[in-house]
Amino acid sequence: MSERTFYRLLKKNLNVRIRCPDCMKAMTLDEFYKDHAPIRHNLSKFSVCLFCFGAHGWKRGEKRHGCNWTHMIECLKRFVDANRIRTIETLPVTTPNIPMCGDRCRKSRLIPRDMCVRVKDRTNELYDF
After folding, report:
1. Which range marks the domain in which residue 28 is found?
2. Is residue 58 domain-resident?
3. pTM strictly above 0.85
4. Can you tell me whether residue 126 is helix, strand or coil?
5. Region of residue 116 (phi > 0: left; psi between -120 and 50: alpha; otherwise: beta)
C-alpha cells in the first residue's frame, strides 16, 4: 500500500472521536495524531508508529518504505475500530404494523400469460371432440 492510501484514510477519519488507550482521554483522531501522542506519550511520528504506541519502529528515512506504510495503514484501521467512541445518534426506528387481510393476500393467484398475439384454438371445445 502507499503513502497516498494512508493519508487518504487518515483524512477520512480525522473527525472520529476516539479514546486514547493509554490515558483514556477523549479526543478526535486529528488531536491524537498531531498533538497528544507526540507530546504526551513522547512518540515521534517520524520514527515509530503512533497507533501501536511504538511497537513498530523504523530507522530515520525508512518511513517511506512500502512495508512500513502497509503496517501503518493496517494499524490505523485497527486503532480506529478499537478505540472509537460509539454514540447513539439515531433514534431507534419502529416499523409500523401492517394489518394482514387474511389468506387472500398470502396465496398467489395464477394469471394466464399472453400467448404472444396468437389466438387460442377453441374449436375442439365447440364441436365436442
Report:
1. 3-83
2. yes
3. no
4. helix
5. left
- Separation of alpha carbons 20 and 99, rounded Å: 50
First to last CA, the chain: 78
C-alpha cell at 7: 493519508
In a domain, 21, yes or no: yes
pLDDT in tens, 39-76: 888 887 777 888 888 777 777 777 777 777 888 888 98
Q: Identify the residue whose cell numbers are 502507499.
A: 2
Give residues with Cβ within 8 angstroms of 36, minimum separation 6. Answer: 20, 25, 27
Q: Domains in the chain: how many in total?
A: 1
96 neighbors 86 (Cβ within 8 angstroms): no
Between CA 63 and CA 91 the distance in angstroms is 44
How do 17-19 and 26-28 pair as beta strands?
antiparallel
